[in-house]
Amino acid sequence: MEDLTPDLGDDRTLLLVDDDEPFLRRLARAMEKRGFDVETAETVAAGKAISTARPTAYAVIDLRLGDGNGLDVVETLRAKRPDSRIVVLTGYGAIATAVAAVKIGATDYLSKPADANDIMNALLAKGDALPPPPENPMSADRVRWEHIQRVYELCDRNVSETARRLNMHRRTLQRILAKRSPR
């Protein structure tokens, strides 16, 4: 079995903030295997409380949480621990939010779904060096399908509203939704 533990230094504390509970559990287990001491939170309030009480050396914070914006947690952690390395995760990749995240102190910005290796590479990237590109990036078809699914869920699974927001014919959308996800 390969050794997954990188050189994390003396402080191995990692805060994970995400409201997707199954994803949060999987990521926490994967990061513990890589040598991190993990604390988790599912809300902005819990993330800010942990950041204030026990500021961590590393953090992975989802942008959109049930009770607000993950950037509030980034600001709190950055104020308490300026040297922390923070990665913002989101399923809503947009240039404006990436710029906002980096401006307030995020080290990197990754779109979901990101795997534990991508996250670890982003957390441990030295200085201004960019982490290596992902080993198996999503295909363009998969990215499109993920985006359509996300908008569909945000529209409470209303096909007509989703089609309107995506500027797509309703029947075309129905055909896409009926198919399996691309690889």
TrEMBL record:
Keywords: DNA-binding, Phosphoprotein, Transcription, Transcription regulation, Two-component regulatory system. Pfam families: Response_reg. InterPro entries: ActR_PrrA_rreg, Bact_response_regulator, CheY-like_superfamily, Sig_transdc_resp-reg_receiver. It comes from Celeribacter arenosi. The keyword Transcription regulation applies. This is Global response regulator transcription factor PrrA. The modification 4-aspartylphosphate is found at residue 62. PROSITE patterns: RESPONSE_REGULATORY.
